[in-house]
From TrEMBL:
Key word Transmembrane present: yes
Regions that span the bilayer: 5-24, 30-50, 70-89, 95-116, 136-152, 158-177, 198-218, 230-249, 261-282, 288-308
Annotated Pfam families: EmrE
InterPro entries from the UniProt entry: EmrE
UniProt superkingdom: Bacteria
Record-given protein name: Multidrug resistance efflux transporter family protein
UniProt entry tagged with the keyword Membrane: yes
Keywords from the UniProt entry: Membrane, Transmembrane, Transmembrane helix
Length: 322
């Protein structure tokens, strides 16, 4: 339950991404700067954190020992995740991007069979392929249905072209984020803590962001002061706070597919926070009856995930209580 709560808090800070990315676009900012500045601003924060904790040497050793996997999976987990989301914000409103992003809940569950977990046997540790957690998948689809109900309120206000350009890139991001996160957890093997891992992924992906920023400088010119400020807020809120909290939660449960699916499902709460944020900052209309029902379904789904993640733990501890 604690990991579920951490995930929900992370989703609140993640919601800032969708609101401010759209705000930057409607005020004339480019998605190129929205994406690259977030990670450029993140770098000094995590550099100071890792230096203060005096565990920089281990991060550099891990990257140096396996540079290609670090660069490749950091590219998947950070670049293929965030660049498509900011690109989508140039074409669609925050609620549409945030709603489509919830596909990552199902994507995370569908990726489960592609990973392994370690069990102890009489002959030593053995890697066993994860099975598809069908209960978690069913609950995730229920949550997704709630998200779709929320989107009905706005579905008639956008064109097919807007839907395509604002959803297809997000579908790529929805699979890239859990895939990159899980592969990096597998690559690190518990040798790095959350701050070290996020810092390492930021360092490994930084060349891509610098190239993108250089391209932006040539094609669209430098970012405005307003975009710099908003990108900085996104970097702190989503890049530092939300990413750290979410990675802490997934690190704690990465060996249990059901619990991992439950933590990843907490991202559905972003839709609620985006709706509230747009109502407050952008004067969006109050949710319709269908949207309210959708919100209740999402909350019910997250409670079901919480129950599912606690149930195995109770079963394991029951014998010792008797």
């Amino acid at each position: 339950m604690k990991e579920i709560l951490i995930g929900i808090i992370a989703s609140m800070f993640f919601a800032v991404t969708f609101i401010l990315n759209r705000s930057m676009e409607v005020t004339g900012g480019s998605w190129i700067w929205s994406s690259s500045l977030r990670f450029i601003f993140m770098f000094p924060f995590f550099l100071l954190i890792v230096l203060a904790r005096k565990n920089m040497k281990q991060v550099l050793f891990e990257i140096k020992s396996r540079p290609l996997p670090w660069i490749g999976w950091s590219f998947v987990g950070f670049v293929l995740f965030y660049a498509p989301i900011t690109y989508a914000a140039a074409y669609g409103p925050g609620w549409l991007v945030a709603g489509t992003w919830q596909l990552t809940i199902v994507a995370g569950v569908l990726l489960t069979p592609f990973f392994f977990h370690e069990v102890k046997t009489t002959t030593g540790p053995k890697r066993i392929k994860n099975s598809l957690p069908l209960k978690s998948l069913a609950i995730s689809f229920i949550i997704l249905a709630g998200v779709m109900l929320i989107q009905l309120q706005h579905a008639t206000t956008v064109s097919i072209q807007v839907v395509l350009f604002s959803t297809l890139p997000v579908i790529v991001a929805a699979f890239a984020y859990p895939l990159g996160n899980r592969k990096m957890m597998e690559l690190c093997g518990g040798r790095l803590d959350t701050f070290q891992r996020v810092f390492g992924m930021t360092v490994a992906s930084l060349p891509f962001w610098l190239v993108l920023a250089s391209y932006g400088l040539i094609t669209v010119g430098p970012p405005s002061s307003s975009q710099l400020l908003q990108a900085f807020i996104v970097a702190v809120s989503s890049g530092v706070i939300a990413t750290t909290l979410f990675f802490i939660a997934t690190d704690r449960v990465h060996e249990n597919p059901d619990r991992l699916a439950g933590v990843e499902a907490t991202q559905s709460a972003q839709v609620l926070f985006v709706l509230l944020g747009e109502m407050w900052l952008l004067s969006s209309p109050f949710p319709s009856a269908a949207a309210i029902i959708g919100l209740l379904i999402i909350m019910g789904g997250m409670l079901a995930h919480s129950y599912l993640t606690k149930k195995p733990q109770k079963q394991r501890t029951a014998p010792s209580q008797g």
